[in-house]
Design a protein that fits this description.
heterodimer, A: globular, B: alpha/beta, 9-stranded mixed β-sheet, two-stranded antiparallel ribbon, 31% helix, 15% strand
Chain lengths: 549, 433
């Protein structure tokens, strides 16, 4: 028995040794190739159907709309931003992270005019995009709370959204499936959209569902009139909100999961009324778009996503725009006036979205291809620095604070030279997951209000300066940390500084920066890891690291 | 004319129909965070000295929900008592559960509300409710009581965080729609150093790190807005963080140098040390401290579970009250102690008590709260659900805000454009000192 255990232990050690050797060899090979003339090229994911017809025409329309706006306001657009800056914006907005040095090498191996388009395709085919966008959508659709125990599995819904994004499921279909979901929340993950609101012993919360549908899918805040008629905004009456909620009246929890029971009407006691009354299911606008056939939620789902129901397209355009710029076209992201006025770009993109099968990837590509997404965030003329007015009119890329999950993603990716993606070894992915959780716990999480103007806090700065969540990614560690690897593998100090800048800032240093930092690296080889740790600390604590630009 | 600050007298009276409420009734204040003109007029009108409002708050959250029957509202000899007896307190005719002897002895300075009611019976929702005074709402994150107080009563003199959460559970106090800067600063057991305030490198290396920053910042600022620093506030926030790192006031967090005997009076527990740290933080000028004592969720073996918790709470709570009083801090420090709800009168098959949001107990003391009073009564048979003289969670919030000198009826505009009052509760008049 003892011998067996000993043998077993030896085997375990042997297995661990082989495993470590594979990781170390693999990473060394990868790092070695970061300085080679033939960089690694990321693998592309599954090919999915996307619509290309009229693409350039829509981009041109959006561009000319903004150009007219600038002309009217005597503004001049900033110069196009460097490709690497655009790549950083895209990585942050589509995957919540930075481009790795490995990816930057691959990007720069493409012909310069094709680099941005190549990079968008690279990101859209990456699992990181589907997972990241799925989480952002989930925040709008069901919030961030764990919700009711047993009948709600948020994780299942996020996975379902991620799969839909990977397959580029038409957005209208995605929304219809959630509103009209039936069955058990584990086998039909879309059901969690409804069960997220379940109140024990009372079933789905119809008012909450009406609030979610109107805000997340239609960009209209009707929930302000849940308890009384509008006080400041007179658009809605209390009755409008509850008539919308009434579509969810029949939704009940039964033995087979979520089902509709037509015998279960929606009842509500309105303000100043003594008794609750049965509320009919009536949509707040465009009743002609409601089909006659189908059950209550089917009819609502069809109406919400009808091609003629323009608020539906506007809402998703505004949300995708917000995710890509960290700032919506119309603020707040889920409150677009029903009758306008609308920014020209919102209307052009909403029309395109409706005309091309509610194709989310096409919408993302369109936004990324516009002039406003690709202009610089700074002025090329020192005598004429950027202004708030230029930012407000998108004549320059607006400076916005990174959201917490983007900070976590940036920190973790910047401390690795190779790409941390779905193909990374499971151990690294688990570490990444744990590190993200630890970072967000201390840094804070915006929750659902992702685009609110949250200010930076003192604990956040303390965490970035002194916290273990940051130090562990910066301090000398030859197995995990990029700073140490650069210190030991970079051919010279200039290359070391440049690689650190590419990893942390996605740009090359200015001559002044190179001169300053190579001087600091002019130390004995054994002190270099510490000096590189200091450089990493400095870069990660700079404004540039915490802001999208 | 000297009007003592007395929210219990003023609410609903003609005197309370102040310039502020008059302006509000005219709609002047409802359109935004107190419009500048209206605010000026209102403040001017209310600047008459009104005595001393409370200065600080300590919230002791009993996470998991204590059983009122096994703590502050025992019904000895009844079917629902579970065989538990009772001990007398400093309030004549009022008994507590055994194990709370020290707390019982300070009740002349403390009042007990035995009729707290809420509509939330789920831990997460109820915690949200008890901390914010509002029920969870998918469209809005309400600020915690400490965040509201710090927002309404800023203090420029203090270098350390004015809102501190010691040993929080998964729901620490949040700034909600007031902004993340009003989130509580979280620390663990005060025996451990405050997190993230010590630079990982020292001396020359720290200087190197900071010097390099100016080179990087200069490169980033090129061609950007001339007011970049005001736009991002990045460097200003960093300066404040660095000021905190070297502040003398940080010592208030460190209880390791407090004499052992003094520390032991609180009980040798992390909760006890947290209460000790709270006194020192309040003394240093911190506005709000919340401390969480988890472990009260006794769905099984209730008697044993509650007993263990009581043994931790009793010395810490009693010593906290005594020390605040001794140091002259109790008169301007509010201390609230209670859980997110109570526990069922009936004992289940595994000897546990389940969730009970009607008729649970809270202790209130200091800062203008009267001591030695009892509000409400629960049914000794456990059959009647509703207690007499019910106090809603929002009423407690309104009272605390009011004692802090904050007009709890003040309306603010939330990010979703909905006007909301700081609290929708009513002041509990019976608790006036």
């Amino acid at each position: 028995m003892k011998n067996f255990l000993l043998q077993h232990k030896c085997l375990e050690w042997l297995r661990n040794g082989v495993f470590l050797a594979v990781i170390v060899t693999g990473t060394c090979l990868a790092i070695g190739r970061l300085w080679s003339p033939h960089p690694l090229v990321g693998k592309s994911g599954p090919q999915v159907k996307e619509s290309n017809a009229g693409f350039q025409e829509t981009v041109a329309k959006v561009n000319s709309a903004f150009q007219e706006e600038w002309k009217a306001n005597a503004l001049k657009a900033a110069e196009p931003a460097p490709n690497l800056t655009v790549a950083r914006r895209l990585a942050l907005s589509l995957a919540g992270t930075l481009p790795s040095v490995q990816e930057i090498r691959a990007l720069e191996a493409q012909p310069e005019p094709d680099q941005v388009a190549w990079w968008i395709s690279h990101l859209l085919s990456d699992q990181r995009f589907s997972d990241y966008f799925a989480e952002r959508f989930a925040r709008a659709f069901v919030g961030v709370d764990d919700g009711p125990f047993i009948v709600y599995r948020r994780r299942r819904l996020v996975e379902w959204l991620s799969a839909a994004l990977t397959n580029n499921k038409p957005y209208d279909q995605l929304v219809r499936e959630m509103i009209d979901a039936k069955g058990v929340w584990t086998t039909h993950p879309e059901v969690n959209f409804v069960t997220a609101t379940v109140i024990p012993d009372r079933g789905p919360d119809k008012a909450k569902l009406a609030a979610r549908v109107s805000r997340a899918f239609l960009g209209v805040r009707m929930d302000c009139v849940e308890c009384h008629d509008g006080k400041l905004d007179l658009t809605w009456k209390q009755q409008d909100f509850h008539r919308l909620a009434a579509f969810f009246g029949p939704a009940q929890m039964a033995l087979g999961g979520l089902q509709d029971d037509p015998q279960h009407p929606y009842e509500y006691r309105f303000l100043k009324k003594k008794e609750p009354e049965v509320v009919p299911a009536v949509v707040p606008w465009s009743p002609e778009l409601v089909p006659d056939a189908g059950d209550s939620r089917q009819r609502l789902a069809t109406w919400v996503t009808a091609p003629g129901n323009r608020p539906f397209a506007r809402a998703i355009v505004n949300r995708v725009w917000a995710l890509m710029f960290n700032r919506p076209l119309v603020t707040p992201v889920d409150s677009i006036p029903l009758e306008g006025p609308f920014p020209a770009a919102l209307e052009i993109l909403a029309e395109d979205f409706t005309q091309h099968g509610c194709d989310l990837r096409r919408l993302i590509r369109l936004v990324a291809s516009t002039q406003v997404f690709q202009v610089d965030s700074r002025s090329s003329n020192d005598a004429e620095p950027q202004t708030e007015l230029a930012e407000d009119h998108w004549a320059t890329f607006p400076l916005t604070r990174l959201r917490p999950e983007q900070m976590a993603g940036s920190l973790i990716q910047a401390s690795s030279l190779t790409t941390l993606d779905a193909e990374t070894h499971i151990l690294y992915r688990l570490k990444r997951q744990a590190d993200t959780g630890e970072f967000l716990k201390r840094y804070g999480d915006f929750g659902e209000d992702e685009f609110g103007s949250q200010s930076g806090t003192i604990p956040q700065r303390l965490l970035m300066m002194n916290g273990n969540a940051v130090q562990d990614h910066v301090k000398p560690n030859p197995l995990f940390n990029a700073s140490t690897r650069i210190a030991t593998v970079a051919p010279d100090n200039t290359a070391a500084v440049e690689t650190a800048y590419l990893a942390v800032f996605s740009r090359r240093p200015t001559p002044e920066e190179v001169a300053y930092f190579i001087d600091k690296l002019n130390v004995e080889q054994n002190q270099k890891p510490d000096m590189m740790a200091d450089l990493y600390w400095t870069l990660m604590n700079a404004t540039e690291f915490s802001w999208n630009h | 004319m000297n009007h003592p600050h007395d929210p219990f007298q003023a609410c609903g009276s003609a005197a309370h129909f102040s310039r502020r409420s008059l302006l509000k009734s005219m709609g002047l204040l409802s359109a935004s965070w107190l419009t500048p003109l209206a605010d000026l007029l209102a403040v001017e009108a209310e600047q008459a000295p009104k005595g001393k409002p409370a200065r600080s708050v300590i919230m002791l959250w009993m996470g998991g929900a204590p059983s009122q029957l096994d703590t502050f509202d025992p019904h000895p000899g009844s079917k629902i008592a579970g065989g538990l007896g009772a001990i007398p307190t400093a309030i004549k005719g009022v008994n507590f559960a055994p194990g709370l002897e020290q707390t019982a002895s300070v009740m002349q300075d403390v009042s007990v509300i035995r009729s707290m009611v809420s509509l939330e019976g789920d831990h997460e929702r109820a915690f949200y409710n008890i901390k914010t005074g509002y029920r969870p709402n998918p469209t809005l994150v309400h600020p915690s009581i400490g965040s509201i107080i710090c927002h309404e009563l800023p203090d420029a003199k203090i270098e350390i965080p004015t809102h501190v959460s010691i040993m929080p559970n998964q729901w620490p106090a949040r700034g909600g729609f007031l902004g993340a800067e009003y989130d509580a600063f979280q620390i663990g057991d005060p025996l451990n150093p405050v997190p993230d305030v010590r630079a990982p490198v020292e001396g020359k290396r720290q200087d190197h790190r900071l010097d390099g920053l100016s080179v990087v910042e200069r490169a980033f600022a090129k061609g950007r807005r001339t007011d970049l620093d005001q736009q991002t506030l990045h460097l200003a926030t960093m300066d404040k963080a660095r000021k905190l790192m070297t502040s003398d006031q940080l010592k208030a967090f460190d209880v390791s140098k407090v004499p052992t005997a003094e520390r032991k009076a609180y009980g040798d527990t992390s909760f006890g040390r947290s209460c000790l740290a709270a006194v020192r933080l309040i003394e240093a000028g911190v506005r709000c401290v919340e401390i969480t004592l988890n472990g009260w969720d006794t769905h099984a073996n209730n008697l044993e579970g509650q007993g263990k918790q009581v043994a931790v709470l009793d010395p810490a709570y009693a010593t906290l009250i005594k020390e605040l009083k001794q140091r002259g801090l109790l008169e301007h420090t509010i201390v609230v102690c209670g859980g997110e709800f109570g526990r069922t009168p009936n004992i289940n098959v595994v000897g546990g008590r389940d969730h009970w949001p009607t008729g649970f107990s809270m202790l209130v003391a200091g800062g203008g709260f009267a001591g030695g009073r009892v509000i409400g009564e629960t049914d000794p048979t456990g059959e009647k659900k509703d207690p007499s003289n019910p106090v809603r969670v929002e009423d407690l919030h309104a009272t605390v805000q009011s004692l802090m000198g904050i007009d709890h009826t003040k309306e603010v505009i939330t990010p979703i454009g909905r006007p909301i009052t700081l609290s929708e509760g009513r002041i509990i008049k019976e608790l006036g000192a």
